[in-house]
Structure formats: C-alpha cells, structure tokens
User: Fold Large ribosomal subunit protein mL49 from Hypsibius exemplaris.
Amino acid sequence: MLPLRLLRSAPSHPPTHSHSHRIFQPSSSLLLSFQRTYLGRTDKFKPPDPNQTYTPVVESADEFRFVDRLLGRDVVPKIPEKSLKEYPTPSGWIPPAPVPPQLPYFIARTRFHNLPVYLHVVEHSTRKLTQVAKVQGDIWMLEKELVHFLRQHAFDGLVASQVSEVNRWIRIKGNYVEQVKEFLLAKGF
Assistant:
C-alpha cells in the first residue's frame, strides 16, 4: 500500500531555499480518490455503528429436528427388524450374525451396515486392489486366513497382500471384492 505521507529526502548539499524539507500532506479530495482507486470503497474502514439494530436470534428445539436429519450419525443405528426376516434383500445385503463370532479379530460394519470391502482402481492403470477396512484385533491372522481362502479363486494360486496395522486395513492385489465378502459373511461378520 502506498504511504499517505511522503517525506522528501534530505539533499547531500546544504539547502538553498527554505521549503526543501516540507512534508507532503494530501488534500481530502486526493485522499478520497486514492481510497476509491486502491481500497475500493471510502467507508470500508469505518467502525460499526453502535446504534444499529440487529435481527433477533430465536432458538427453536422443535425446528432442530430438521437440522438433525442432515447431520451425520456418530453411532450406527439399529438394524430394522423387518430386514432380519427376509434376507438377502434385493440389493444382496445380509445383516451380521446376531452374536459376534469369537475370533481374535473383528471387522466392524460401516454406518450403513455394509461390509467395509472396497475396490480401488489405480488411476491411469488397469491395476486393481481389494481393500478390507475397519479391522480390529489380530490383523495378521485375518490376513493369513484370507489369503489361504483366496488362493482357490486366484488364477495361478498366488495372492499378494499388504497389511497396515496403523490404518487397520488389508489390501489384496486383484479384484476379490465378492470373494472377500463371501469369506466375511461365512465367518459371521
């Protein structure tokens, strides 16, 4: 931003006239022109008017139910009872077993009660990776059992996998989404 007061630099030789050290002070019209040009508005830096009235705020608990519908859920809602009677549903969804399996590992469902098994396609490539997320407990034992199960579905009997203990997921090279879901449903997840 340009300074509003400009000082004339002192000359190296002694002044010959008396007005050589004047301070430049712009006129009000020049200042307004500067503010319009470089700041956009002249009233931009005015303090707020203390007499200005604001719109009152009303807190309504009755209307918050409309907002609550839009917020994400932190807890998985219960499975509707009617869906437990007839499954698999037309979409192929199957609920988890009523009693969790007694295994050293556990796979939590997503907030929509789906199995956390995803297919990742590497960008600009034909490489596909199957990922099992939300693994709790002994992730290495799950990986060992999963690879053993998938060997019968692999083309050459080789299954490459990667385990991330910190992020709690297992990646398998190839598209094995349906086979992994079949494995997890057979285990009771």
Remarks:
- The radius of gyration is 35 Å.
- Residues 1-11 have pLDDT under 50 and may be disordered.
